[in-house]
C-alpha cells in the first residue's frame, strides 16, 4: 500500500543507490514540487545537493527573502541569486506576452547555467517533475517549453546535458503534498497557491517596469494577506492581482486623479485546466479594495474578475 512514509523510505534508498557521491544541482522555485524534491534529495545525499534560487524580480512582495530563509532553515545547501536587473533589462519595452515569456525563459537559462557551472564536478540535474507533467508533455507552458524553444535556436545549455533525476515523477499533486507534510516541510510552502514561472510579468499587461512590479507587489500583498486573515486563502485554488495599463479618472480629497486599475482574480479549480471564479464575500472584497486604493500610490480603481475558464484563462498575460 502506498503511504507517504513508505514512499519516502524507498525513494531515499533508491536515490542513495543511484547517486552515490555524485553532485546534483536543482533550481528551486518556492513552489511545492521543487521544495519536496529538494528535501527528499537532501535527505538522500546531504550537501551534495546544490540548490539554486533565482530572484527574477517578478516574485511576490518579500517572497525571495522569506522563501530563501525557510529553505536555509530546512538545512538545504542553497544559493540565492539576485538577477532582478537582468530580467528587467531583458523585458524593457516588450509588451507581447509570448515575447515576454521567451525573454524570461532565456535569461533564466543563462542565469541558471552560470550558477550550475559554479558547482564543481556536478553530474545530475534534479527536477520537481510530477506525474501529470510527464503525461501532459502536451502542455505548452512552463520552463520545459521555454527550454525547448531555446534549444531549437541556440544549442543546449550545459546544465541540460546533465543526467536528470526526478524523484516525484510517479506522484500526483496531493501525494506530493502528503509526502511534503511527512517530511516536515512548512505548511505555508505546501499550501501555496500555484504561481506561474514568469511570475508577475504575465500579471502586468503590456510592458513591465520595476515601478509597475512594485505597485503590483503592494496590491497583491494586500489582497493575499486579506485572503489569509479572512480565512479563505486555503479555500481558493489560486488568487492574484493583475495590473492593467488602463487609466481612469478618480477623485482623492479635492483632487482629480488619473491612475491605473488593479484587477483581483480568484479561482476554484482542480488542475488549472478549467476554473470557476470564486464567490468571495462582498465585505472582504470591499476591505481589500479600500486598502489597495488608500495605500497603493498609482491605483485609484479595483475591479474583480468574474470570468470562468473556458472561455477566459486564469492568467491575463
Ligand atoms: P491559464 O492562464 O492558462 O493558466 O488558465 C493555467 C495555470 O497554469 C499556470 N501557468 C503557469 N505555470 N509556468 C508555470 O509554472 C508558466 O509559464 C505558467 N503559465 C500559466 C497559471 O498560473 C494557472 O495556474
Report what the structure shows.
The chain is of the alpha/beta class and 317 residues long. The protein has two domains: 4-190, HUPs (Rossmann fold, 3-Layer(aba) Sandwich), CATH 3.40.50.620; 209-304, GMP Synthetase, Chain A, domain 3 (2-Layer Sandwich), CATH 3.30.300.10. Helix content is 43%, strand content 19%. The chain has eleven helices and nine strands. β6 (238-252) and β7 (255-268) form a beta hairpin. The longest helix has 21 residues, at 97-117. It is globular and about 70 Å long. The termini are far apart. The model is unreliable at 138-142 and 148-152 (pLDDT under 50). The protein binds xanthosine-5'-monophosphate (XMP). Residues 141-142, 194, 196-198, 238, 272, 309, 313-315 line the site of xanthosine-5'-monophosphate. Keywords: ATP-binding, Glutamine amidotransferase, GMP biosynthesis, Ligase, Nucleotide-binding, Purine biosynthesis. This is GMP synthase [glutamine-hydrolyzing]. ATP binds at residues 29-35.
